[in-house]
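Thread: quick sanity check before group meeting

JM: Hey all, I'm pulling together slides for Thursday and realized we never actually wrote out the predicted structure for the chain we discussed last week. Dropping the sequence here so it's in one place. If anyone has concerns about the input, flag it before I start.
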Amino acid sequence: MEPDNAEFRETFVPFSFKPIEVRFEGKPLFAGTMLGVEPEASANSRTVTVSAYALPAVLGDCTMAAADLPLEFGGLRLREIISVIAGRFELETDIREDLGDRIKKVAIDVDRTPLEFLIELLKQRNAVLSDTPTGQLLCWRSAPTGSPIARWDANSSPTVKASFNAQEYYSEITGFTPAKRRKRGSHFTERNPFLNTIKRPLSFRLDDSEAGDAPGAVKAKLGRMFANMASYTIEDIPSLKSPDGNLWESNKTVKITAPTAMIYRETELLIRSVTLKRTKDSDAASLNLVLPGAFSGEIPTTLPWS
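JM (edit): ok, ran it. Output follows.
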Protein backbone atom coordinates (compact mmCIF):
# COMPACT_ATOMS: atom_id res chain seq x y z
CA MET A 1 0.00 0.00 0.00
CA GLU A 2 1.40 3.38 -1.07
CA PRO A 3 -1.07 6.11 -0.05
CA ASP A 4 1.32 8.87 -1.03
CA ASN A 5 1.72 7.50 -4.56
CA ALA A 6 -0.65 9.26 -7.00
CA GLU A 7 -0.74 6.29 -9.38
CA PHE A 8 -1.63 3.95 -6.52
CA ARG A 9 -4.45 6.21 -5.34
CA GLU A 10 -5.83 6.47 -8.87
CA THR A 11 -5.71 2.71 -9.42
CA PHE A 12 -7.13 1.38 -6.16
CA VAL A 13 -10.38 3.28 -5.67
CA PRO A 14 -13.20 1.71 -3.62
CA PHE A 15 -16.48 1.20 -5.52
CA SER A 16 -14.86 2.11 -8.83
CA PHE A 17 -15.58 -1.26 -10.54
CA LYS A 18 -12.50 -0.89 -12.68
CA PRO A 19 -11.60 -3.56 -15.25
CA ILE A 20 -9.01 -6.15 -14.26
CA GLU A 21 -7.11 -8.53 -16.53
CA VAL A 22 -4.88 -11.42 -15.51
CA ARG A 23 -2.45 -13.06 -17.92
CA PHE A 24 -0.42 -16.22 -17.58
CA GLU A 25 2.65 -16.66 -19.77
CA GLY A 26 1.34 -13.86 -21.96
CA LYS A 27 -2.07 -15.43 -22.56
CA PRO A 28 -5.43 -14.17 -21.17
CA LEU A 29 -6.47 -15.99 -18.01
CA PHE A 30 -9.15 -13.76 -16.52
CA ALA A 31 -11.08 -10.60 -17.43
CA GLY A 32 -13.21 -9.11 -14.72
CA THR A 33 -14.34 -6.22 -12.59
CA MET A 34 -12.67 -4.94 -9.43
CA LEU A 35 -14.91 -5.37 -6.40
CA GLY A 36 -13.22 -5.23 -3.02
CA VAL A 37 -10.43 -2.81 -2.14
CA GLU A 38 -9.49 -3.55 1.46
CA PRO A 39 -6.63 -1.58 3.07
CA GLU A 40 -4.90 -2.90 6.16
CA ALA A 41 -2.10 -1.32 8.15
CA SER A 42 -0.09 -2.47 11.11
CA ALA A 43 3.14 -1.42 12.78
CA ASN A 44 5.12 -3.60 10.37
CA SER A 45 3.22 -3.50 7.08
CA ARG A 46 0.72 -1.72 4.90
CA THR A 47 -1.22 -3.72 2.32
CA VAL A 48 -4.29 -3.52 0.16
CA THR A 49 -6.23 -6.65 -0.81
CA VAL A 50 -8.08 -6.53 -4.11
CA SER A 51 -10.87 -8.91 -5.18
CA ALA A 52 -12.61 -9.19 -8.52
CA TYR A 53 -15.12 -11.31 -10.37
CA ALA A 54 -15.56 -12.16 -14.05
CA LEU A 55 -17.30 -9.62 -16.26
CA PRO A 56 -20.49 -11.72 -16.74
CA ALA A 57 -20.92 -12.09 -12.96
CA VAL A 58 -22.76 -8.76 -12.95
CA LEU A 59 -25.75 -10.75 -14.22
CA GLY A 60 -26.03 -12.32 -10.77
CA ASP A 61 -25.79 -9.04 -8.86
CA CYS A 62 -28.26 -6.86 -10.70
CA THR A 63 -31.76 -6.96 -12.13
CA MET A 64 -32.68 -5.61 -15.54
CA ALA A 65 -32.84 -1.83 -15.75
CA ALA A 66 -36.29 -0.27 -15.51
CA ALA A 67 -35.89 1.05 -19.04
CA ASP A 68 -35.51 -2.54 -20.30
CA LEU A 69 -38.77 -3.75 -18.72
CA PRO A 70 -41.07 -5.40 -19.38
CA LEU A 71 -38.73 -7.88 -21.08
CA GLU A 72 -40.65 -10.70 -22.71
CA PHE A 73 -39.44 -13.23 -25.25
CA GLY A 74 -41.66 -15.14 -27.63
CA GLY A 75 -40.67 -17.47 -30.42
CA LEU A 76 -36.92 -17.00 -29.90
CA ARG A 77 -34.22 -19.59 -29.47
CA LEU A 78 -32.44 -19.65 -26.13
CA ARG A 79 -29.15 -18.57 -27.70
CA GLU A 80 -30.95 -15.43 -28.96
CA ILE A 81 -32.37 -14.73 -25.50
CA ILE A 82 -28.92 -15.08 -23.94
CA SER A 83 -27.44 -12.68 -26.49
CA VAL A 84 -30.17 -10.08 -25.91
CA ILE A 85 -29.74 -10.11 -22.14
CA ALA A 86 -25.94 -10.05 -22.33
CA GLY A 87 -26.12 -7.15 -24.78
CA ARG A 88 -28.07 -5.05 -22.27
CA PHE A 89 -24.99 -5.28 -20.03
CA GLU A 90 -22.55 -4.76 -22.93
CA LEU A 91 -21.32 -8.33 -22.66
CA GLU A 92 -20.24 -10.54 -25.53
CA THR A 93 -21.29 -14.20 -25.68
CA ASP A 94 -19.66 -17.49 -26.59
CA ILE A 95 -22.44 -20.05 -27.05
CA ARG A 96 -20.97 -23.41 -27.98
CA GLU A 97 -24.05 -25.59 -27.90
CA ASP A 98 -27.30 -26.16 -29.73
CA LEU A 99 -29.83 -25.16 -27.09
CA GLY A 100 -32.90 -26.63 -28.71
CA ASP A 101 -36.15 -25.36 -30.18
CA ARG A 102 -37.69 -21.93 -29.92
CA ILE A 103 -39.26 -20.98 -26.60
CA LYS A 104 -42.93 -20.17 -26.89
CA LYS A 105 -43.12 -17.40 -24.30
CA VAL A 106 -41.10 -16.38 -21.26
CA ALA A 107 -40.47 -13.14 -19.35
CA ILE A 108 -38.09 -11.85 -16.67
CA ASP A 109 -39.71 -10.76 -13.41
CA VAL A 110 -38.76 -7.25 -12.35
CA ASP A 111 -37.06 -8.47 -9.16
CA ARG A 112 -35.22 -11.45 -10.65
CA THR A 113 -31.60 -11.35 -11.70
CA PRO A 114 -30.79 -12.25 -15.32
CA LEU A 115 -28.52 -15.04 -14.08
CA GLU A 116 -31.33 -16.72 -12.13
CA PHE A 117 -33.60 -16.41 -15.15
CA LEU A 118 -31.08 -17.91 -17.56
CA ILE A 119 -30.03 -20.71 -15.22
CA GLU A 120 -33.61 -21.94 -14.95
CA LEU A 121 -33.93 -22.02 -18.74
CA LEU A 122 -30.58 -23.75 -19.20
CA LYS A 123 -31.00 -26.42 -16.51
CA GLN A 124 -33.55 -28.40 -18.48
CA ARG A 125 -31.29 -28.24 -21.53
CA ASN A 126 -28.30 -29.62 -19.65
CA ALA A 127 -26.21 -26.53 -20.28
CA VAL A 128 -24.29 -24.28 -17.88
CA LEU A 129 -23.00 -20.72 -17.83
CA SER A 130 -19.44 -19.66 -17.18
CA ASP A 131 -16.99 -17.11 -18.55
CA THR A 132 -14.12 -17.16 -21.03
CA PRO A 133 -10.60 -15.88 -20.23
CA THR A 134 -11.42 -12.76 -22.23
CA GLY A 135 -14.65 -12.01 -20.34
CA GLN A 136 -17.35 -13.37 -22.60
CA LEU A 137 -20.47 -15.05 -21.23
CA LEU A 138 -19.83 -18.72 -21.97
CA CYS A 139 -22.56 -21.31 -22.46
CA TRP A 140 -21.45 -24.93 -22.75
CA ARG A 141 -22.26 -28.48 -21.79
CA SER A 142 -20.51 -30.88 -19.47
CA ALA A 143 -17.49 -32.58 -21.03
CA PRO A 144 -17.95 -36.24 -22.01
CA THR A 145 -15.89 -38.94 -20.38
CA GLY A 146 -13.12 -40.80 -22.12
CA SER A 147 -10.35 -38.20 -22.34
CA PRO A 148 -9.05 -37.54 -18.81
CA ILE A 149 -6.26 -34.97 -18.50
CA ALA A 150 -4.75 -36.59 -15.38
CA ARG A 151 -4.71 -39.93 -13.63
CA TRP A 152 -3.87 -40.94 -10.06
CA ASP A 153 -3.86 -44.43 -8.58
CA ALA A 154 -4.09 -45.45 -4.93
CA ASN A 155 -0.31 -45.15 -4.49
CA SER A 156 0.17 -41.77 -6.18
CA SER A 157 -3.11 -40.14 -5.17
CA PRO A 158 -2.78 -36.63 -3.69
CA THR A 159 -4.78 -35.46 -0.68
CA VAL A 160 -8.45 -36.03 -1.50
CA LYS A 161 -11.34 -34.89 0.68
CA ALA A 162 -14.84 -36.27 0.18
CA SER A 163 -18.03 -34.34 0.90
CA PHE A 164 -21.36 -36.20 1.04
CA ASN A 165 -24.78 -34.60 1.52
CA ALA A 166 -27.40 -37.26 2.25
CA GLN A 167 -30.20 -34.69 2.48
CA GLU A 168 -29.72 -33.87 -1.21
CA TYR A 169 -30.15 -37.52 -2.24
CA TYR A 170 -33.56 -38.77 -3.42
CA SER A 171 -35.09 -42.05 -4.51
CA GLU A 172 -37.12 -40.37 -7.26
CA ILE A 173 -37.71 -36.94 -8.76
CA THR A 174 -40.98 -35.84 -10.37
CA GLY A 175 -41.71 -32.74 -12.43
CA PHE A 176 -45.27 -31.41 -12.71
CA THR A 177 -46.33 -29.40 -15.74
CA PRO A 178 -48.88 -26.63 -15.09
CA ALA A 179 -52.56 -27.29 -15.68
CA LYS A 180 -54.05 -25.22 -18.47
CA ARG A 181 -57.59 -24.26 -19.22
CA ARG A 182 -59.67 -27.38 -19.98
CA LYS A 183 -56.56 -29.52 -19.74
CA ARG A 184 -55.02 -31.17 -16.74
CA GLY A 185 -51.32 -30.94 -16.11
CA SER A 186 -49.11 -33.99 -16.31
CA HIS A 187 -46.10 -35.27 -14.47
CA PHE A 188 -42.93 -37.20 -15.23
CA THR A 189 -40.83 -39.25 -12.82
CA GLU A 190 -37.20 -40.37 -12.95
CA ARG A 191 -36.07 -42.93 -10.37
CA ASN A 192 -32.66 -43.15 -8.76
CA PRO A 193 -31.33 -46.62 -9.66
CA PHE A 194 -29.05 -46.64 -6.62
CA LEU A 195 -31.63 -45.98 -3.90
CA ASN A 196 -34.49 -48.45 -3.63
CA THR A 197 -34.34 -49.35 0.05
CA ILE A 198 -36.00 -46.18 1.30
CA LYS A 199 -38.57 -43.71 -0.01
CA ARG A 200 -37.21 -40.17 -0.49
CA PRO A 201 -39.26 -38.47 -3.24
CA LEU A 202 -38.80 -34.91 -4.51
CA SER A 203 -41.30 -33.04 -6.70
CA PHE A 204 -41.00 -29.69 -8.44
CA ARG A 205 -43.01 -27.55 -10.81
CA LEU A 206 -42.16 -27.06 -14.46
CA ASP A 207 -42.97 -23.64 -15.84
CA ASP A 208 -44.42 -23.11 -19.32
CA SER A 209 -41.01 -22.84 -20.92
CA GLU A 210 -40.08 -26.30 -19.63
CA ALA A 211 -43.32 -28.15 -20.27
CA GLY A 212 -42.41 -29.09 -23.84
CA ASP A 213 -39.38 -31.02 -22.69
CA ALA A 214 -40.53 -32.12 -19.26
CA PRO A 215 -38.97 -35.61 -19.35
CA GLY A 216 -35.59 -34.12 -20.22
CA ALA A 217 -35.95 -31.47 -17.52
CA VAL A 218 -36.68 -34.09 -14.87
CA LYS A 219 -33.75 -36.25 -15.96
CA ALA A 220 -31.51 -33.18 -15.88
CA LYS A 221 -32.58 -32.44 -12.31
CA LEU A 222 -31.81 -36.02 -11.28
CA GLY A 223 -28.40 -35.71 -12.91
CA ARG A 224 -27.67 -32.51 -10.96
CA MET A 225 -28.63 -34.33 -7.78
CA PHE A 226 -25.50 -36.44 -8.14
CA ALA A 227 -23.38 -33.27 -8.21
CA ASN A 228 -25.01 -32.02 -5.01
CA MET A 229 -24.81 -35.23 -3.03
CA ALA A 230 -21.14 -36.12 -3.60
CA SER A 231 -18.08 -34.01 -4.41
CA TYR A 232 -14.35 -34.33 -3.91
CA THR A 233 -11.53 -31.85 -3.44
CA ILE A 234 -7.93 -32.49 -4.43
CA GLU A 235 -5.73 -30.01 -2.61
CA ASP A 236 -2.22 -28.65 -3.07
CA ILE A 237 -1.31 -30.04 -6.48
CA PRO A 238 2.19 -28.51 -6.86
CA SER A 239 1.65 -27.07 -10.34
CA LEU A 240 -0.69 -24.68 -12.10
CA LYS A 241 -0.60 -26.95 -15.15
CA SER A 242 -2.11 -30.36 -15.75
CA PRO A 243 0.00 -33.17 -17.26
CA ASP A 244 -1.09 -32.14 -20.78
CA GLY A 245 0.83 -28.88 -20.36
CA ASN A 246 -2.20 -26.59 -20.10
CA LEU A 247 -3.51 -24.73 -17.08
CA TRP A 248 -5.89 -26.73 -14.93
CA GLU A 249 -9.42 -25.80 -16.00
CA SER A 250 -13.01 -26.75 -15.29
CA ASN A 251 -15.09 -29.00 -17.52
CA LYS A 252 -12.29 -31.52 -17.98
CA THR A 253 -12.12 -34.99 -16.45
CA VAL A 254 -9.56 -36.88 -14.38
CA LYS A 255 -9.31 -40.52 -13.32
CA ILE A 256 -8.55 -41.29 -9.71
CA THR A 257 -8.43 -44.10 -7.16
CA ALA A 258 -8.46 -42.87 -3.54
CA PRO A 259 -9.64 -45.47 -1.00
CA THR A 260 -9.28 -43.02 1.91
CA ALA A 261 -11.92 -40.84 0.21
CA MET A 262 -14.08 -43.92 -0.52
CA ILE A 263 -13.16 -43.93 -4.20
CA TYR A 264 -12.47 -47.65 -4.07
CA ARG A 265 -12.28 -48.20 -7.81
CA GLU A 266 -10.78 -46.09 -10.56
CA THR A 267 -13.39 -43.44 -11.31
CA GLU A 268 -13.50 -40.71 -13.93
CA LEU A 269 -14.67 -37.46 -12.34
CA LEU A 270 -15.52 -34.04 -13.76
CA ILE A 271 -13.61 -30.94 -12.67
CA ARG A 272 -16.32 -28.55 -11.46
CA SER A 273 -14.00 -25.74 -10.37
CA VAL A 274 -10.30 -24.93 -10.08
CA THR A 275 -8.39 -22.77 -7.61
CA LEU A 276 -4.95 -21.58 -8.73
CA LYS A 277 -2.49 -20.10 -6.23
CA ARG A 278 0.84 -18.44 -6.93
CA THR A 279 3.26 -16.94 -4.43
CA LYS A 280 6.84 -15.81 -4.88
CA ASP A 281 7.95 -19.22 -3.62
CA SER A 282 5.51 -21.76 -5.06
CA ASP A 283 2.55 -22.65 -7.27
CA ALA A 284 -0.41 -24.80 -6.25
CA ALA A 285 -3.77 -25.88 -7.64
CA SER A 286 -6.88 -27.35 -6.03
CA LEU A 287 -9.63 -29.18 -7.93
CA ASN A 288 -13.27 -29.67 -6.99
CA LEU A 289 -14.63 -32.84 -8.61
CA VAL A 290 -18.11 -34.27 -9.14
CA LEU A 291 -19.52 -37.35 -10.84
CA PRO A 292 -19.43 -37.12 -14.63
CA GLY A 293 -22.78 -36.35 -16.22
CA ALA A 294 -23.85 -34.30 -13.21
CA PHE A 295 -24.58 -31.32 -15.48
CA SER A 296 -25.58 -33.20 -18.62
CA GLY A 297 -28.51 -35.23 -17.30
CA GLU A 298 -26.64 -38.52 -17.48
CA ILE A 299 -27.17 -40.98 -14.64
CA PRO A 300 -24.01 -42.78 -13.44
CA THR A 301 -23.74 -46.47 -14.19
CA THR A 302 -21.88 -47.05 -10.92
CA LEU A 303 -20.76 -45.11 -7.87
CA PRO A 304 -17.17 -44.68 -6.60
CA TRP A 305 -17.88 -46.49 -3.34
CA SER A 306 -19.70 -49.43 -4.97
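AS: nice. Residues 6-54 form one domain. Residues 69 and 121 are 19 Å apart (CA to CA).
JM: adding both to the slides.
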